[in-house]
Amino acid sequence: MNKVDRLARNRLDDAIIHATLRDANISLVSVTENIDETPSGMLMHGILASMAEFYSLNLAQEVLKGMTQKASMGGTPAKAPLGYLNVRTTDAKGREVRDVTVDPERADLVTFAFTAYATGNWTLSSLAKELEARGLTTRPTPSFPAKPVTTKALHKVLTNPYYQGSVTFRGITYDGAHDPLVDTETWLRVQTELAAKNQRGEKPRTHDHYLKGTLYCSC
User: Fold this and answer.
1) pLDDT single digits (tens) 76-111
2) pLDDT above 70 for 20
3) How far apart are CA 180 and CA 158, in angstroms?
4) Of residues 89 and 214, which shows the higher confidence score?
5) Contact in structure between 70 and 80 (CB atoms under 8 Å)
6) Which of 144, 152, 164, 165 is nearest to 194 (CA)?
């Protein structure tokens, strides 16, 4: 191997792998580090494994700190939800800035979804069908093509406070710097409608039909 930190990033995994190799009469050799099966080599191996674990934990902590700070300032620390796009720009000093902008192809349809559902005249299934007819799809990725929004995905959209201007990160909600797609009053009406329909059995499901959860067999 090239370096110990390529073998494992925590001491427990490193010890288990090392013990497994020794039981199989396999010697671990690093081409860039002075480790072997001698006492001094094993001591060096332990030190390097501890350093690799520290680096990994410290890096994760610094990343989390940066994401928390970004959220507290109204930024979006994760992938933007449907109706928005993650964009990269450059500031006056030439530094990369990661921001969020409204998706011109999907934002109006997401807004329609909220205003329509708030009227109480739609179910998740019927609204998902209407949105599909109007052309709303998920964003394509290198692994997955664009596809119509399911009732489960629609429920996730309608319950996400991001659309009314909030950013939630690790259980804490902040005022977002992004443009909301729906006003707070409409968003709250949607939550009321969802709660009411949930009590009647109208729940998000993967397979859609209009009256699922509403009509039942008399027997």
Assistant:
1) 888 899 999 988 877 777 777 778 899 999 999 999
2) yes
3) 13
4) 89
5) no
6) 152
Provide the 8-state DSSP code for 178: S
Structure tokens at 82: 């449907």
With tokens 């501890």, the residue in question is 50
Residue 194: Cβ within 10 Å count? 18
Which contiguous run of DSSP H or E holds residue 88? strand 84-90
Residue 213 to residue 219: CA distance in whole angstroms: 16
Tell me the whole-structure pTM to 2 decimals.
0.67
| Residue whose entry in the numeric block shows the structure tokens 């209009």 | 210
Specify whether the CB–CB gap between 189 and 209 falls below 8 A: no
DSSP-H helix ranges across 73-123: 107-118
138 touches 149 (CB < 8 A):
yes
Q: Please tell me the total number of residues recorded for the chain in this structure.
A: 219
Q: Please, are residues 67 and 76 in contact by the beta-carbon 8 Å criterion? A: no
Q: E strands, 170-214, where?
A: 172-175
Instruction: Look up tokens 């909301």; give the residue.
Output: 180
Q: 57 by DSSP, 3-state: which?
A: helix
